[in-house]
Amino acid sequence: MEGGSAVITCIALLRGINVGGQRMIKMNVLKTLFESLKLKNVNTYLQSGNVVFNSEPPDCNELRKSIENKIREDLAFDVPVILRTADQLENILPNNPFLKGRNEDITRLYVTFLAEEPAADLLDKLNGLKSADDEFSVSGKEIFLFCPGGYGNTKFSNGFFESKLKVTATTRNWKTVTELVAMAQGDNRS
């Protein structure tokens, strides 16, 4: 970040770490790994692979590949990484359809983050699928979920969306999304 280049805040969402004893990564190890890539102000949130950091305006695809490669090199396993800028993450908050004109329990709200926007034909097929209780709404590279019975009981899992849309997906609960936005906004103001 030499020469006074602009710095932006990014959020990395790692898929499937520290779940069921698989692909275990301690957060201090993850923080050091990100810092070794010359990323600044690296902070983690929870044990599920949420990392907020500063970077020169990135080529997100290249940065994602660098992070995935570094994890593979240092830890000897593959972890899909999904990136969002602070602005992209912040724009999610006012766009949750389950909070517009509805009074849903926020502990039953989730966001599934997609690595890329799904193909229109696959999205059309997905939109035809229903569940008795759970609802979803796709908006670009995010899927908003309302799961009254909890995420652990929905058929709308990461694997479900990945198989239907042919893109990598990872899900966070609404509290985590709002906490990551707050962390990212803090980085933007420093």
Q: Please report the number of helical segments.
A: 6
Level of helix content? 25-40%
Gap from first CA to last CA: 16 Å
Class derived from helix and strand content: alpha+beta
E-strand count: 8
Specify Rg, calculated over alpha carbons: 17 Å
CATH topology name of the largest domain, in short, is Alpha-Beta Plaits
Could you name the CATH homologous superfamily of the largest domain? Answer: SP0830-like domains
* H/E series: EHEEHEHEHEEHEH
Mean pLDDT: 89
> Order of strands side by side in the largest beta sheet?
2-3-1-4
Major sheet: size, sense and barrel closure? 4 strands, antiparallel
Number of domains: 2
CATH architecture of the largest domain: 2-Layer Sandwich
Instruction: State the low-pLDDT regions, or none.
Output: none
Shape: globular
CATH class of the largest domain: Alpha Beta
**Beta-strand percentage range:** 15-25%
Could you list some keywords that capture this structure?
single chain, 190 residues, alpha+beta, Alpha-Beta Plaits, 2 domains, four-stranded antiparallel β-sheet, 6 helices, globular
